[in-house]
Design goal:
The chain folds into five domains: 211 residues, no CATH class; 163 residues, no CATH class; 39 residues, no CATH class; 64 residues, no CATH class; 196 residues, Beta Complex (Beta-clip-like). 32% of the residues lie in helices and 8% in strands. It has 29 helices and 24 strands. Strand 14 and strand 15 form a beta hairpin. The protein is globular, with a radius of gyration of 34 Å. The protein binds S-adenosylmethionine (SAM).
């Protein structure tokens, strides 16, 4: 397991990287040195760094002459090393070759690792080795300044007399960095002072951390004012001048034996009331989290879903967990239960009479064995009180449970009640909460915290809505019943439809509409054979529609798209046209439609390219995906659809679920000489040979990209998520409140994809897909890009742009085509490679910066990385540029919410006909006086590629 700690000081639960003490998230990299040193030093360091030497740090200490250190590493770590051991009271189990006496060891990041301490020499600012340099000491992305300046850090480090102090300094810097990042986030509308207060509360959980944090703020005051603009809109001097608000411990004044400890800050209080007041004063937010999230009743850690909480309890509190299981007993019948939720359910269903408010004790937290009248025996202090004592006149009940109306005078009691009573899947509050301490800490860390608001209890809301709907329905039914009674006397044979019509008359039009549409849907649909047999006798779409609808009733439009493709494949000539066309032969069937000119039907001379195998559509494939239809035969460039030779059946060699064939049209065959012995010519004849086909991005080691740890599993419990409960939809809505779909409608509460898996989200927003932490499977409507290429694509030889990619089938607007895959590099590495590759060869670089205008709505800290598909790539590397492209780019988050890990998805920006070349806009920056002519042929061509 990783030895790191979260920003809240809890232990990280992720697996450590092989050979490391920390997971990827907690293992800092030295981006500064790699990105910004002169090239020669960089090269040398890279070689040394990746040569696999165990003593990397030591080596680098020797070669690095730029060290800014004013303090000797040895004197810092060495002297207090054993003091550290004793003060922390732990027995280190060092590897045999580990020599602690030298004291030349890195503190690690985060520290506290006594079992497997970092064995490297601390070099970087006296505390960290190369690998463990924390993010806040690295140069900021813009290359201008560090978040915590080296001077300030080394100054503070000098004041540290013990290992523990260094740890605290480390924590304070970490917190300072998170705060800094969060406040700088453009997407983060949380007021600065709120964030600042949050950080202060966090810091104040440990006096020493708090002190360092205040010192940091004080030392960096000028810079903070300048960067955060505190000076303009907020007077922070009182906050900055005063020490952090430390927990108001009343330890001195109270009898220690009877003291009640606050589980958050360990402050002690004489009674529950005082603790409650303290919670209200100091931990109001945590209290809310506790009520609305899945909080652990033992340690108060919060989780985004129940499964995580269960795992946590089992792992962390095994003993307490077992005890609790043993002790939860129903007093009236003596039954034992595994958890309080089951017990509560049992009491509700079996002993409801015992559950009377008047039997409530004075306090909700029942002592062991107390409350014989109560149906529930709570042996543990943290078991949930299940009684409603709202009727007890002696106690002021301030807090009402939103779900069941029970009242409590103390917040913690309400929290415990909530946890026990409303966290079960069978109970009213079955919508898993996603607002926990961890969740918010994560969001704050990742710069995604938009505001400290909570999604209004969806469960409660939906419960209310459902109740309202039920009540309305009941009223409607009663009205209908009484009406029906009256009607029956007059008209005994009432049809279903007329009954439904009565609903309409009685304010249930919504329900009636739904019922009507359901009735329609149950009608049979024509299968392929039905369509083909009718199409044989049809002259145009009008007559085809008339015949089909005569037999099958009103059909959705997509049936005609499917019909169009079927006809094309079977060479059945039907006059296809836009809606509203009036057939010159007088075919009729569709009403009230304006005259539109017909589209040209597929010509008799139509010869499909060999590459497209029309006969391989199993009829059930249509059932699965009937949307891949020809809709616009105008788009066909018939010239290119001539006979072609297949050069390779699948350039992915089975890596894609849909083979990607490589073809050369007959008229261009002469330009290819397969047997040429020259290497370059062979590559140009067999393009799949010039690179390695991969289906996953390859992260270059030069990047310090965050790992999959920055991802959330949604709380939907089905194999297919629904937008109402999917956390990714919620997160998106929270991050981009104003986002619209491509039709201008608000995106709120919707997946980025429609029910056919086509993107509807307007360009420029991040797409949040579900991921492996979610319970849904591949069929989830919020998993598209990650499922890989699903449309037929052909790599083909173009006349003048080398190889290109064209549609092997008609592709409808919004369809995911492929991902731009390659090696992900940082700017420096990309620059080096560009130099190495030279400019004569075609470029396979995708520079995220060049697309920043498309993605202008992306967040602060937009990653600057480059994807190089020269050596490793997929079909996307063959897609040519067009100034009027038919593909659009979207950044898609899958394994990580960190936008540096975003995938680049290419989606159809309009309907694309079979055989049409696929293009996207490279958006290369145009440099005057140089560049390559653009051969895209678009009417609005910019003239040059770059
Ligand atoms: C990503 S590659 C595309 C595949 C490439 N045509 C091949 O044969 O491998 C980009 C290169 O294709 C060529 N290219 C792409 N679009 C072009 C265009 N519109 N006009 C001229 N050359 C283009 C340029 O050489 C460019 O550097």
């Amino acid at each position: 397991m990783c030895e790191g700690t979260t920003v809240l000081g809890t232990k990280c639960k992720h697996r450590a990287l092989p050979g490391f003490l920390f997971c990827k998230k907690h293992k800092p990299h030295d981006e500064t040195e790699i990105s910004h040193s002169p090239q020669s030093t960089l090269k040398r360091k890279l070689e040394e760094n990746y040569a696999g030497s165990v003593n990397t740090c030591r080596d680098i200490v020797l070669v690095n002459s730029e060290s800014p250190l004013e303090v000797e590493p040895v004197s810092f770590i060495g002297d207090d090393y054993f003091q550290r051991k004793s003060s922390l009271g732990e027995n280190p189990t060092h590897p045999d070759n580990y020599d602690a006496t030298k004291g030349l060891h890195c503190i690690g990041s985060p520290p506290f690792d006594d079992k497997n301490p970092c064995r490297e020499a601390p070099k970087r600012y006296c505390l960290y080795c190369e690998n463990h340099l924390p993010s806040w000491l690295k140069r900021a992305r813009n290359g201008k300044s560090r978040i915590v300046s080296k001077e300030v850090f080394t100054e503070l480090l000098r004041d540290c007399n013990s290992w523990e102090q260094k740890v605290h300094l480390h924590k304070a810097c970490e917190l300072f960095y998170r705060l800094f990042k969060s406040i700088l986030s453009l997407r983060n509308p949380v007021p600065k002072d709120v964030q600042f207060q949050w950080a202060l509360t966090e810091a104040s959980k440990d006096t020493s951390v708090g002190e360092f944090f205040t010192k940091l703020v004080h030392t960096e005051k000028a810079r903070i004012k300048l960067i955060w603009g505190f000076g303009d809109d907020l007077d922070v001097s009182p906050i900055m001048e005063e020490p952090p608000v430390l927990p108001s411990t009343t330890t001195d004044s109270i009898d220690n034996e009877n003291a009640i400890k606050c589980k958050i800050c360990s402050a002690e209080f004489s009674d529950d009331q005082a603790l409650g007041n303290h919670w209200m004063d100091s931990h109001k937010k945590e209290a809310q989290w506790l009520f609305r999230g899945y909080a652990c009743a033992i340690c108060l850690d919060s989780f985004t879903n129940k499964k995580l909480l269960e795992t946590h309890v089992q792992e962390r509190h095994h003993v307490q967990f077992v005890e609790q299981c043993m002790l939860l007993q129903c007093i009236p019948c003596g039954s034992h239960f595994g958890n309080s939720e089951q017990l509560w359910q049992h009491v509700l269903s079996v002993h409801p009479v015992d559950l009377k408010p008047s039997k409530a004790p004075e306090r909700q937290t029942l002592p062991a064995g107390a409350g014989q009248d109560s149906p529930v025996k709570h042996v543990q202090g943290n078991s949930a009180p299940l009684e409603n004592n709202s009727e007890n006149p002696g106690v002021l009940r301030k807090f009402t449970c939103r779900f069941c109306g029970l009242k409590f005078d103390l917040l913690p009691d309400l929290g415990r009640h909530h946890q026990a009573a409303h966290m079960g899947p069978n109970l009213v509050s079955n919508h898993p909460a996603k607002k926990g301490v961890r969740y918010y800490a994560y969001r704050l860390k990742s710069g995604r915290l938009s505001r400290p608001k909570f999604k209004k209890g969806l469960a409660a809301a939906s419960y209310r809505i459902r109740n309202r709907a039920n009540a309305n329905l009941k009223r409607g039914i009663q009205a209908t019943k009484s009406l029906g009674m009256r009607d029956m006397s007059l008209q005994p044979r009432v049809t279903e439809t007329s009954k439904i019509s009565k609903f309409v008359e009685h304010q249930c039009s919504g329900v009636a509409k739904i019922l009507f549409s359901e009735i329609q849907k149950t009608k049979p649909r024509p299968n392929n054979l039905d369509i083909l047999s009718i199409a044989h006798t049809a002259c145009c779409k009008v007559s085809l529609a008339a015949s089909l609808e005569e037999k099958f009733g009103i059909l959705p439009k997509r049936i005609y798209l499917k019909a169009a493709k079927l006809c094309a494949e079977h060479n059945i000539i039907v006059n296809w046209h836009h809606e509203g066309f009036i057939c010159p032969r007088g075919c009729n069937g569709l009403k009230d439609q304006a005259l539109l000119s017909p589209l040209s039907s597929l010509p008799n001379s139509f010869v499909r390219p060999k590459s497209v195998n029309v006969s391989d559509h199993a009829s059930d494939e249509w059932e699965l995906d009937e949307f891949h239809c020809i809709i616009n035969s105008h788009g066909l460039k018939l010239g290119s659809l001539q006979k072609s030779s297949i050069f390779c059946d699948d350039i992915s060699f089975g890596k894609e679920s849909t083979p990607v064939i490589c073809v050369v049209d007959q008229e261009l065959l002469h330009s290819i000489n397969k047997n040429d012995s020259n290497d370059q010519d062979t590559d140009s004849a067999m393009p799949w040979k010039s690179f390695t086909y991969v289906t996953k991005a390859m992260l270059d080691q030069s990047l310090s990209l965050d790992s999959e740890s920055l991802q959330l599993g949604c709380s939907c419990s089905y194999s297919s998520c629904c937008p109402e409960t999917c956390d990714h939809v919620y997160l998106f809505g929270n991050d981009y409140e104003d986002a619209n779909d491509i039709f201008g409608k608000p995106m709120r509460g919707r997946f980025p994809y429609d029910e056919n898996g086509r993107i509807i989200l307007e360009e420029g927003y991040l797409v949040y897909e579900c991921n492996r932490r979610c319970r849904c499977n591949k069929s989830c409507p919020n998993r598209i890009l990650q499922n890989g290429v699903r449309v037929k694509l052909e790599v083909f030889k173009t006349e003048n742009k080398g190889w290109g990619v064209r549609a092997g089938e008609a592709i409808l607007r919004g369809t995911f085509v492929c991902e731009y895959i390659g090696e992900v590099l940082d700017v420096q590495e990309a620059h080096n490679r560009r130099k190495r590759y030279g400019t004569e060869h075609c470029s396979y670089f995708y520079d995220i910066d060049d697309h920043v205008n498309d993605m202008s709505r992306l967040i602060e800290g937009q990653a600057h990385y480059i994807i190089d598909a020269t050596k490793y790539g997929n079909v996307s590397r063959f897609i040519n540029h067009s100034c009027s492209p038919n593909l659009v780019n979207h950044q898609v988050l899958v394994e990580s919410m960190d936008c540096e890990r975003a995938h680049i998805g290419l989606y159809a920006s309009r309907d694309i006909a079979l055989g049409e070349e696929l293009t996207h806009d490279y958006h290369y920056k145009l440099v005057s006086g140089e560049g390559t002519p653009c051969l895209c042929g678009a009417s609005k061509c910019r003239g040059r590629l770059y």
